Request: fold
Amino acid sequence: MLASRRSRAVLGLVAVGLAAAACSSSKTNSKGSSQLTQSLSREQLAAAAAKEGSLTWYTTFAADDVASMTKAFNKVYPQVSVKTLRLSADKIPARVSTEQRGGKYNADVISGNSSYVAQLIQTGALQPYSPPDAAPLPAGLDMPTGYDTYTYVTTTALAYNPTVLRQDGLPIPHTLQDLTKPVYKGKFSIDPGAVNIYDSTVKSIGADAAKKLFTDLGNNDPRFVESHTEAVTDVEAGEPPVAATAYGYKAASEKRKSPRNIDFVNPNPLPTGVDLLDIAKNAPHPNAARLFVDWLSSQAGQQSVVDITNHTSLRSDVDNDKTVWNPATWPPVYSNPNLPSATFNEYLADMKQALHAP
Reply:
């Protein structure tokens, strides 16, 4: 069931050719796609956004964090309400594509794991926009101009339950390779749809070695989870006591609450993925969408992301959680934020086959 849901989310994407909506902050090019302009001052944009009054944000932010993030935005811009729809990353492409094929343009702003948001970029469901104060992506990460804004980066750590490991006499794992050892047989979970970590592993050790590593993991009877968040929750409960695909920010947050039940190790190099931030094609509230993206990518917005969610920002003027992000200690190896659909599907199939995932 997990495999079929993820496959439908990716393979169901089709190109969308839609006429642009006319508005004061957009223009239409010869191909009919909406291009956002940057001709308004910050004050003019805020006034135009206030006139629109609201925006709709499709996001993968945790449910508990969404309200706090919108509250932080409204402290600065109280006249623009933010309606949110929280979806898992693999559900966003199918949702947006289905709506747009039916002539519905509900979303203004879309943010989520780049592996899935890139599918919408490639099918024309988003429109380019470059916030004036956004920090650039790290060197080597290639994105089309106007689609390179991000909300945060996520790191994939090994999470474990210290109490259960101690009770079972198990050592603390430090690498994915450790989890291929007989002592961990049936004692760890993995998300078989986490294409970002597979891509990062391919970059680290090569395609053949990555396929062998995941095959060895699959032969060690992992338990399958549908998300990195579920992996952390299961580890806290001790079933299983180790997670191969846990987000570092989430493990660190939970460790502060319950250090007896969860701890984590950052692999070296550190698998890292980018969560992108874009404006939907024919966004019904283009000025409010621009204002929100401007704020969320700014220093103030990024510091709010870190303070509220413990996610990681790439801005040099933001204070991150040093237990999660310290490139000098754990050099990041980034998954491709614009992975072509064919490569995505190939990696997804290879990963599930290697892990013996359903």
